[in-house]
Amino acid sequence: MTLFISFLTAFFKIGGIINPLIIHFDVYSGVNIFGDRIDIFGVFASAFTAVLINFFLSNFLYNRERFISYIFSFGSFGMAILILIAASVIISVN
Q1: Would you list the DSSP string of the chain?
Q2: Rounded to an integer, what distance in angstroms lies between the CA atom of residue 87 and that of residue 44?
Q3: Which residues pair with 33 in a beta bridge?
Q4: Where are the domains of the chain?
Q5: Burial annotation 4-33 (CB, 10 A radius, 16+ → b, else e)
Q6: CB distance 79 to 50 below 8 Å
């Protein structure tokens, strides 16, 4: 759900921008990496794929090892939160 909310936020905020977007910046050297909208949505696609794989692994391992299943579940949630933070930073910089 968090990944979906961050995707919608990025889509509505960045969807209309045609100029190159600032993907990475550093305090000392300034802007390092420019990218397009496709680069940002590629991050969401890879995060969604990783969450989907973790969900299937968690579901498969639930009856065998519940602790590992919980690790996969909370890891997916943590990754979704980090993607939300990264998307928020990219939106605020641009």
Answers
A1: -HHHHHHHHHHHHHTT--SPEEEEEETTTEEEEEE-HHHHHHHHHHHHHHHHHHHHHHHHHTTT-HHHHHHHHHHHHHHHHHHHHHHHHHHHH-
A2: 9
A3: 24
A4: 35-94
A5: eebbeebeeebeeeeeebbbeeeeeeeeee
A6: yes
Instruction: Assess contact for 21 and 90: CB atoms under 8 A.
Output: yes
* 34 contacts 22 by C-beta, under 8 angstroms: yes
Report the C-alpha gap between 34 and 50 in whole angstroms.
24
- Cα separation, 28 vs 13, in Å, equals 28
**Model confidence over 21-69: pLDDT tens digits?**
888 777 888 888 888 888 888 888 888 898 899 999 999 988 888 899 8
Q: Rounded CA gap, 23 and 32, in Å?
A: 8
